[in-house]
Specification:
By secondary structure, this protein is mainly alpha-helical. The chain contains 14 helices and no strands.
Amino acid sequence: MPNPLPSACALFSCWGRTPRQFFVSRVIRLYPACWFAVLFTTAALIAVPGVWERLRPREVLLDLTMLPSGSGVPDVDGVYWTLWSELRFHLLLPVVVAMGLTYRRVVVLCRVWGAVAMPAPVARLPLLELAANPDGAWYSIAGLALHLVHRFGQDLLLRGILAMAWLMGQLEPGNRIEDVERVSGRRGSVAVVTVFLLFMVAVPLGYTDRIRWKWLVTAGAMTYPLYLVHCAADTALIARLPIAVLVTGFLLLSYLIHRFVERPLSRLLKRGLDTSFARLRNADHRP
């Protein structure tokens, strides 16, 4: 299930910034951990064969771009389908960033995007479905609305957007549980989506302000690496290691990825991209 949090964080990171700054912030946040996770998962599936199908080298290389779903290539790990959904959101938001982010423009984006995403699955127009991203649209719309609640406060319009996102957001996890995972039913998916969204709403409303544990910052930073490595590699090893060892090991691995992969690579990427964009800017001013 896609997560509304990335869209809320993305809007937070680009408010008052240029499209270039937004692009750099998203690249250094998403790619370093993804590169490591693709290679780690591939190595785990080679070391423990017979559980998941191993991809060919060229498919693994394409996974490093976060674009395999858009090219018809299978993912190294099945959960990476949400990365393609998130990436499409990150290609859409800079259009609004270039116009200048305001409360009104983000609300219009939520309304127009929802109006297009709703009929996209039955329109039988591949380009429309590709742009509207109906599987992940409602979670991203919820994230945008949550950020507006945080920045401007709640009102009836934002409550309506969140209610529509909650209603329409039931479709994707329900279909996935019934058709792919088959581990529960639609009632279970409704409960999970509802509880998760209520917690997300509680944050911008200030109900969690008293929680100031310092370790939560690190725990939050570990969620993305943990998400990237938890599924295929975890299930490949689950029959060979005790659950407690497996959980502890993957939590430790997520911290190590954050500390020794994300941090240094993000700094290097930021310096390199800033230098490249400065070169482009200076080249445009040369006679």
